[in-house]
């Protein structure tokens, strides 16, 4: 069974990633409320401690999910979150990413660094081969994050996810371990 251990974390130069805990509810909910203008209409993270508890418990307890909080190393403030959902083992070894920055941290490169740490963890510890990001076509910031992290556009899915009261179209972006290896080999030349 793929599970993240509560003590497991990774750090980069400016951010770290760590698992969700119930103790993060107050800060997470406050940051989500402060970030409504940034998130809407794309994303609806929990904005109360009670809703956060159910959300976090789902990520903590479900073996098909691995949730990560991105935090600023200087001071420890939450910068955002990145979740690996729909983890499938066996021949598929895949997961779907969902993420969001908090408004105070948006545009500062924290999520790009955090996404790199999560990708490394997913391809390493979780032994996944493929990660997929599904993004609404108008969400330029999310598309830029996917592209900047090396994900490639693979296709378009009409009416893919039910968000904010309607079925929304999405672009499919993907990254595999083979793509990362080829990119690394190309940079070494």
Low-confidence residue ranges? 1-8
* Cα shape: globular
**Major sheet summary line:** 8 strands, mixed
Strand content: 25-35%
Gyration radius from CA atoms, angstroms: 16 Å
CATH superfamily: Gcn5-related N-acetyltransferase (GNAT)
Class computed from helices, strands and strand pairing: alpha+beta
CATH topology heading: Aminopeptidase
What number of domains?
A: 1
What order do the SSEs take from the amino end to the carboxyl end, as H and E? EEHHHEEEHEHEEH
CATH architecture: 3-Layer(aba) Sandwich
Helices, by number, come to 6
Distance between the termini: 38 Å
The total count of strands amounts to 8
Helix content: 25-40%
Mean pLDDT: 92
Structural summary, described in words:
With 189 residues, this protein is α+β, with helices and mostly antiparallel strands. It has a single domain (10-187), classed as Aminopeptidase. It is 32% helix and 33% strand. It has an eight-stranded mixed beta sheet with strand order 1-2-3-4-5-6-8-7, with helices on both faces. A hairpin with a 2-residue loop joins β7 (152-163) and β8. The longest helix is centred in the middle third of the chain and has 14 residues, at 110-123.
């Amino acid at each position: 069974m793929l599970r993240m251990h509560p003590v497991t974390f990774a750090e980069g130069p400016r951010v770290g990633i760590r698992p969700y805990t119930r103790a993060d509810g107050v800060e997470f909910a406050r940051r989500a409320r402060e970030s409504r203008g940034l998130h809407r209409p794309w994303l609806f993270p929990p904005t109360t401690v009670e809703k956060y508890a159910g959300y976090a418990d789902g990520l903590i307890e479900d073996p098909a999910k691995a949730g990560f909080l991105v935090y600023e190393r200087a001071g420890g403030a939450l910068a955002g979150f990145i979740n690996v959902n729909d983890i499938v083992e066996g021949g598929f070894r895949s997961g779907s990413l969902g993420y969001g920055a908090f408004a105070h941290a948006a545009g500062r490169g924290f999520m790009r660094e955090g996404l790199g740490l999560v990708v490394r963890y997913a391809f390493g510890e979780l032994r996944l081969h493929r990660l997929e990001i599904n993004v609404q076509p108008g969400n330029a910031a999310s598309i830029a994050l996917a592209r900047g992290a090396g994900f490639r556009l693979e296709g378009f899915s009409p009416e893919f996810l039910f968000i904010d009261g309607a079925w929304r179209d999405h672009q499919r972006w993907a990254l595999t371990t083979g793509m990362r290896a080829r990119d690394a080999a190309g940079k070494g030349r």
